[in-house]
Amino acid sequence: MKITAARAAAFVKAPDPKVRAVLVYGPDRGLARERLDALTRTVVDDIGDPFRVADLTPASLKDDPARLADETAAQSLMGGRRVVRLLDAGDGQAPAIQAVLDDSPGEALVLALAGELRPSSALRKLFEGSPAAAALACYADEGMTLEQVVRDTLRAHGMTVGHDALAYLLEHLGGDRLLTRAELIKLATYKGDPGEITLADAAACVGDTAALGLDDLSLAVADGDDTRTQRVLDRLLREGTGPIPVLRAVVRHFTRLHQAAGAVARGASPDQAVGALRPPVIFKHADRLKAQVRRWDSARVGQALTLLLEAEGDCKSSGPPPEVVCSRTLMRLARAARDGAPRAPGRAR
Q1: pLDDT attached to residue 210
Q2: What is the extent of the structural domain holding 18?
Q3: What is the C-alpha separation between 255 and 175, in angstroms, rounded?
Q4: Distance between CA atoms of 173 and 202, rounded to whole angstroms?
Q5: For the chain, what is the mean pLDDT?
Q6: Model's pTM, two decimal places?
Q7: Per-residue DSSP letters for 54-102?
Q8: What is the CATH number of the domain that holds 147?
C-alpha cells in the first residue's frame, strides 16, 4: 500500500499490524533515516540491540541470497519480535523481499531504506502493490511541515520562535530532516536558557555569511541598487561562492516576487500579496519586497527569470568566464529595476 503524506506521521508512530514490510525512500535521506529509526522503535527500544535488530546491505544479500529470509524467520535469543533492516535497497533486492512476503514463517518487521525511486521502480511497485507491505516517501520539508518541525524541536528545549526568526529558519532549513534538527539543536544550545528565539539568534547560528550575503544580493538586484549589487557580488565571489549558486539564489528571490506580482495582477494589494508568501517574509524585508512588487509586474519578472536561467546555461558553456556572465546579468537586472523593463531575453555575453 502507498502511505500518503497526510498519513505518514501517524503510520510511523503506529504501523498497521497487517504490514510486515515497509519501504522508506526519497530524496530527503535524513527524513528517511529518521522514519526508519522511528519504525524500528515501534518494535524494539534499543536500535543497537544485536539480538533483535539486524542491519543488512545489498552486498550481504549478494553473497548470501537466502539471508533476508533467514533473518526474517529467526527468533531472538532474548525473546521479543525482531526487526530486519535492508539499507541502501534497490530494485535488485525486490525478488528477495517478494519471497519474504510470499512465504516466511517469521514475525520480524522488514524495513527497507532507499534513495529516490521512480514510479516504475520494481521495489516501489512491490511495496505499493502488496497488502502486507507499505511504501513511505520522504521529500524535503517545506511549508507547514517544516514549520511544525521547527516549532516542535524548539519546544522540546522550552523555546518558542518569533515571527521573523521563523521566517528566516524556514528560508534556510528544510533540505534534509536530520540536518534541520541538528541546526535547530545547535540554535537551542546557543540560546541556552528557555525563551523566544529572535531573528538575531537565528541569523547568528543557522546558515552562514554566504547565505546572508545571497539574501542581501537578491534584494539589491530587485531594488535596482546596482552599486550594492556589484559590491556584494564581489565579496561573495571573493569568499568562494560560485556564480551558479549566486544566480540560483537570485532566481529563488525573483520566483517569490513572481508569485506576489501574479497575486497583484489578480486583484490583491502589494501588502496582501507579500503577506501571503510562504515561507513568510522576514519583517524587516517586507517593505522592500512590497516596493519591488510595485516596481516589477508579472511580465517583467518573467523576463528576469528567463535572463537568469539563460545566464546559468551560459556559465556552463565555453563562452565568457562564469563570473563575467553572472556579473553582467545581475547588473543588467538591477539597472532594469531602476530604469525600466529589461530588454527582450537574450544571452548575457
Answers
A1: 54
A2: 2-137
A3: 18
A4: 11
A5: 87
A6: 0.56
A7: EEE-HHHHHH-TTHHHHHHHPPPTT-S--EEEETT--GGGHHHHHHHHH
A8: 1.10.8.60
